[in-house]
Amino acid sequence: MALAAARVPTPTGFSDWSVYIPLLLVVAVAVLYWVGSRRTASSDRTTGIRRWRTASFLGGLMVVVIALAPPIDRLSETLFWVHMVQHVLLLTVAPPLILLGRPWLRLWRSLPLRLRRDVARWFTEKPAGIWLRRAARGLGAPLPAFVAYSTVLLVWHVPALFDATLLSVPLHVLEHELFFGTALLFWKQVVDSPPLRARLTIVQRIGYLTAAMLVSWVLAIVLALASEPFYSPYSLQPARPGGISALADQHLAAGVMWVPGSIAFVVAALICFHRWVAPGVPERASAPQVGLVADR
Fold first, then answer.
1. What is the pLDDT of residues 38-54, one digit of tens each?
2. Largest alpha-carbon pair distance within the chain?
3. Which tens digits make up the pLDDT trace of 250-259?
4. Of the four, 123, 125, 192, 257, which is 20 to 30 A from 88 by CA?
């Protein structure tokens, strides 16, 4: 889904949230989730867990809205450090919350049964569907997911490409979609979200998270040690909110990537470590069995 809003010349504030595409898309997904939940039976003893997962999923959707709608989206046009907050939310906050919500079967069940059968048949019988399913399975493996996530993070922060996203709405849309999409692939290796399941052992997940955090640290260090601002649209601005310089703005952005950007990795690694040392916790998740045909 398109995750970046079209930019219109409206003032920064909360009054214009309703015209932004992310909010409309989130409402649509939330409605589908509600419909699918009505079609999903659950016992009384799982009601509490189900409510917690619903809160997690809806929280993840709300983070997407917060990241891509005013005031953050507006301020990101003039403050680089706010732009980095936007990226951190899309890369490390919204994806794990959505995966923790395990929404996939509920979203699938929201569709008409006939449509589900047709889509399932296309994926399992048609050559194009079989190829797409195999490609998705390959890209969803740990190593390709890590490479895709890290590459997207680093490449889009190359000055020439980053500057281009600030001058082109379609390119900015593509940047945000790739951030969010590859982040889902990455966090899927760490967070079990049936029918999607992580293929890594608990110890491997700790190393996986640590390696990804180090990649983000490389970007943060490069930004922090720079003696001049990298990105022209920010450095050429005559003034910034708060009166900070372009270089100070870039150093703040490095701090955002370094500290807040590491929180999700550290928390997830600590949880994995606890599961590793705690008795009675299985070390390895089963291989993913992604089914397209849900229960009626």
1. 887 665 557 788 889 99
2. 61
3. 999 999 999 9
4. 192
| Residue 239, CB-side half-sphere exposure with 13 Å CA sphere | 3
Q: 196 φ, ψ to 5°?
A: -80, 135
Q: Which two tokens stand for residue 288?
A: 């993913």
Tokens encoding 10: 């409206």
